[in-house]
Amino acid sequence: MTEPSVLEYWEKENLDKYFMTNKSENGEAIAMDKSDLVRIHQLIRQRKCFTVLEFGVGFSTIIIADALKKNKMDWEQLDPAPKIRNRFMFQCFSVDTSEKWINISKERLPDSLQDFVQFQHSRVEIGTHNGQLCHFYKSIPDIVPDFIYLDGPDPKAVEGTINGMTFQCSERTVMSGDLLLMEPILLPGTFVLIDGRTNNARFLKNNLKREYEIIWDKEGDVTTIELVEERLGKYNLLGSDFFKTNHGRYA
Q1: Is this prediction's pTM over 0.90?
Q2: Angle at CA 101, nearest 5°, toward 95 and 103?
Q3: I need a surface site. Which of 37, 63, 65, 126 has the fewest CB within 10 A?
């Protein structure tokens, strides 16, 4: 995504209004990567996502909530309203290991977006998957997301030791195994965006068993994983199924 298109999208979606008061203690604006935030917003809007699971709170939480709010407005224009099986429509479930950052994120979240986010604190512990070192959140929201944003945890937040190894080792990359645990319950069409964490993305690619399209954007430093299996049935459809045009593009 080129910089002009990022700025144009940012302005068109009026996203600046959420960050006017986000200043550091010395009054300077807190740095944010608009390119990353626009990517997240665009994907959720284009795919008309219903339920987002976010690992790692931040400015992304605000962006996700805004995209879900706009998706809800689009959904309410459909007549008649489709019937699907989803108790958590237009909700972002944001999980983090830091209660401090959860509280900061709550304070940053504008009143207009409060209804679109649920925060959850969880510890992360070292573990294994098929004998391979990784780590798992101890408490994950009991949902079936159609969009997952993987940008946490900090490796230093991972507790525990296996055979003398820890994630307190500064040279060791993060290695989340949570998606492997969740894989059987994911719906066809589920989309995963991994921010950086390329070694973790490769670990997931090598261990996921279902049919996926996996793309590594080296320049953008992100990996996307889409579950491309055939839909299960009429009650397990995703938002994108209701908004495709005759040309197969998202409206």
Answers
A1: yes
A2: 95
A3: 126
